[in-house]
Amino acid sequence: MNTTIAMLRLMRPANIITAVSDILAGAAIALFAGNADWRAVPVVSVLLLVAATAGLYGGGVVLNDVFDAELDRVERPERPIPSGAIGRGAAALLGAALLVAGIVAAGFVHRPHWLSASFLLAGAIAVAAVIYDKWGKHHSLAGPLNMGLCRGLNLLLGMSLLPEALRNYWLLALVPIVYIASITMVSRGEVHGGSRRTLHSAVALYAIVAASIFLISVRNGTWAYALPFLLLFAGMIFAPLRKAIRDPRGPLIGKAVKAGVIALILMNAAWAAAFGNLPAALLILALLPLSLGLAKAFMVT
């Protein structure tokens, strides 16, 4: 494994695509809130937010592997750092550089650069990611909520395209917080197997997430747009979770976690549809095959 491939493996490219879908969903919500369309938004602003989330997500997961290096030598020796494909110091430098790049990119979305909602949200995501990587993951309740917070803030980062949308729709961040917290709880059984109780809890939380988006679409009068995406979302997350419940071994739980992460794209497409932006929903949906393709070449969890 050469250094470039090792860096890409650390950054989880398939997952970064799901983070990009958060941004596009948040932007669609912002446009609804501002009664605007894509023609009113500078393309460069969207691209800067996409670059910001790529840096923030990539940096966060790289540092996660840096902090987990000793544990991975025992449980996942094939990963880039314990296998020797990249040094721990070099990986730490890469992760830090990606986080800084993400924050800087967000700072240029609006003026003044360093007081904008985008800049502050990017900084909050970076802090939350490092806290999770170093400390949060070791706590049974705080850890999943910490990880969920990163995703909730990322949806808000997309909404910061039109900052006024944040005042009325910031509570929507609770939905991805709940969803990612449930995935994080399930993921703790990837190596040694999990408990059916945890998996049943995930089923309930997944159902709450899907129902929340559907109810919002009903309120917005867009349920016919959102429903197809929600059905695809439900199919992708519940099928592997059902298999894991029947046999909660590590490999099956790993598949359920992988499906849950990639399914974020479908959830975000449903968000866009629920806020009446079908073109954005279809654009987000188009990211799914790209993420699935990258997931075959690079690890997701």
TrEMBL record:
It comes from the Bacteria. Keywords: Cell membrane, Membrane, Transmembrane, Transmembrane helix. It is a multi-pass membrane protein. Its main location: membrane. The chain crosses the membrane at residues 12-34, 40-64, 85-108, 114-132, 168-186, 198-217, 223-241, 253-274, 280-299. It is found in: Membrane. This is UbiA family prenyltransferase.
